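Folded chain entry
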Amino acid sequence: MTTLTVLMVCLGNICRSPTAEAALVEAATEAGLDLQVRSAGTGGWHVGAPPDPRMTDAAAQVGLHLDGEAAQVDASSLEQADIVFAMDRSNLRDLQRLAAAHDVSTPIQLFRDFDPQPGDGEVPDPYYGGPDGFAEVVAICRRTALEVVRRIVDGELGDGTAVTASHDDVDRPS
């Protein structure tokens, strides 16, 4: 299997997308899957900054390590990816507009399309909330990353086409 390049995108690239990046790397490593995972934000406010310390702390409490520096997504980063995951609908729309403006055909979809417990379909932004919001983001990213890796391993995702996730066919905890 060719190494897939996955791009995780949120607004500022200091909370959700670096957490999703770390969770996907963790899940891929555990599965013995070779993935190249990066993250970026649609906004440029935090470019060069490390992940938010509150997010880093919440992740560290459950053994997930966040690192790197915030970057802003551009057409080139979309082109270099095999699949792009947006953390919410607003970022999904921004990414779709960017891709359309530069004739980029990389599949772009919501990360939580693959969450066995999809809630409202978005990874909530914890930036203005308390510690529980950061812990929730870690839990969402970890379980969704496991499902993304399962779908890649099973050949359902990563062949250059987006997969429409049906939550009816996902095993749910009883």
